[in-house]
UniProtKB/TrEMBL annotation:
Keywords on record: Signal
Source organism per UniProt: Fulvivirga marina
Protein name: Ada DNA repair metal-binding domain-containing protein
Signal peptide: 1-24
Length: 126
């Protein structure tokens, strides 16, 4: 009877450890960042895209220094539900700055500030 209890306890511990390693394989990236994060990281407040750890490393993402997510891959095949993984939008890395598109109401002159924002407006006119 004691052997059975020990065996069941060992099986339970191993199951918990296996589930934790399977969950640790899912990391998160942001829309514009170059690092991958843990699910509870403070930098994921605005955008959060789940991705497999292997894919994150293949794409050149580095681990976050704040949340310190797992960096080792324990299994070659990761089973993450396809509905959970969302492909992040592609953003051009080499964006050229351009002049703000807003014109003054009284003079009609354009704003002199330069911006890399997609909207074409500088920080003051957003």
């Amino acid at each position: 009877m004691k052997k059975l209890i020990k065996y069941l306890m060992l099986l339970t511990v191993l199951t918990i450890l296996f589930v934790k390693t399977a969950d640790a394989q899912a990391v998160y990236i942001t829309k514009t960042g170059s690092k991958y994060h843990d699910e509870t990281c403070q930098y994921l407040s605005h955008s959060k895209y789940p991705i497999a750890l292997i894919d994150a490393k293949e794409r050149g993402y580095e681990p976050c220094k704040v949340c310190k997510p797992t960096t080792t891959v324990t299994r070659k095949e990761i089973e993450i539900e396809k509905s959970k993984i969302i492909e992040p939008p592609r953003i051009e890395k080499n964006v050229v700055s351009k002049q703000c598109s807003v014109r003054a109401k009284t003079t009609g002159n354009r704003c002199r500030r330069m911006t890399k924002n997609v909207s074409g407006k500088c920080w003051q006119h957003e």
